[in-house]
C-alpha cells in the first residue's frame, strides 16, 4: 500500500511540475511578441520597388503557424520567397532569392511591440562566388496596419546599396 501511495505521489508531482495553472498568464518573450506582430502582415499587398516597378506581395502562415511565408512577385516574372520564424530569443529570415542563393538573416527584437525589424546577415548558401550578389540585410518597417516598407541591403562585388520597397495592404 505504501508503494502504491508513493507511486501516485510521484506521478502527481511529475504531472504538475511542468504545467502552468489555468489562472497563470505567461508573458511572451520579445521575440515571440515580435513574431506575433509580423503575423499581422498576413494578406495581400500592392507596392512599388526602388525603380518604381509595381510589385505584389503576400504573407501567409505555414507550418501550423510557426512560420510566416512572404511571396514577392515582380513584373519581370521573378518570384522570391522569404520565410520568417522564431529561433530562441531572435527571429530568423531565410530569403530564397531570384539570384539563386539563400541568405539567412537574424533580428534580435528590442521592444515588446516593435514596428521595425532589422535583420542582419548571418550566412548564405549556394553563392556562386564570394563576391556574387546577395541580400546582406533587410529592414521591415510596419508604418501602420495598412502600410509597410522594406529596405533591402544588396551586396555585389564588394559594393552595397539599399533598395526600398513600399507597400499598401489590398482591401477585400
Overview of this protein structure:
This protein is α+β, with helices and mostly antiparallel strands and 172 residues long. The protein has a single domain, classed as Calycin beta-barrel core domain (Lipocalin, Beta Barrel), CATH 2.40.128. It contains two helices and ten strands, in the order H-H-E-E-E-E-E-E-E-E-E-E. The radius of gyration is 21 Å and the shape is globular. The termini are far apart.
Structure class? alpha+beta
- What is the N-to-C succession of helices and strands? HHEEEEEEEEEE
The counted number of beta strands is 10
Q: Which residue ranges are poorly predicted, with pLDDT under 50 across at least 5 consecutive positions? A: 4-20
**Largest sheet: spatial strand order:** 1-2-3-4-5-6-7-8-9-10
Quickly name the level 1 CATH class. Mainly Beta
Number of domains: 1
Helix coverage percent: 10-25%
Name the CATH homologous superfamily: Calycin beta-barrel core domain
Sheet with the most strands?
10 strands, antiparallel, barrel
What overall geometry do the principal axes of the alpha carbons give?
globular
- Overall mean pLDDT: 88
